[in-house]
Amino acid sequence: MPLYIKDPEIDRLTEELISITKTSKVDAVRDALKHEIAKRKAALPVRERLAKSIAMAREAGPFAPGNHKQETDDMWSED
């Protein structure tokens, strides 16, 4: 869905960012949104940021015994 914003302050801020970054309006808005999303995600508690990794680890189950160093060496050997 297209984004239509009719707000003079938003337009002024966008123009200011464009003049600083020397980019298009679309790029300026995209970069600003990406920056804000990344900032908000980084502010999440560690538990929330790691929730997907924790779920994957639980699904994988406990550590499997074995000689993992040798298995890795065998996979990457150039025989």
Automatic annotation (TrEMBL):
<dbReference type="InterPro" id="IPR011660">
    <property type="entry name" value="VapB-like"/>
</dbReference>
<feature type="region of interest" description="Disordered">
    <location>
        <begin position="57"/>
        <end position="79"/>
    </location>
</feature>
<protein>
    <submittedName>
        <fullName>Protein transcription factor</fullName>
    </submittedName>
</protein>
<dbReference type="Pfam" id="PF07704">
    <property type="entry name" value="PSK_trans_fac"/>
</dbReference>
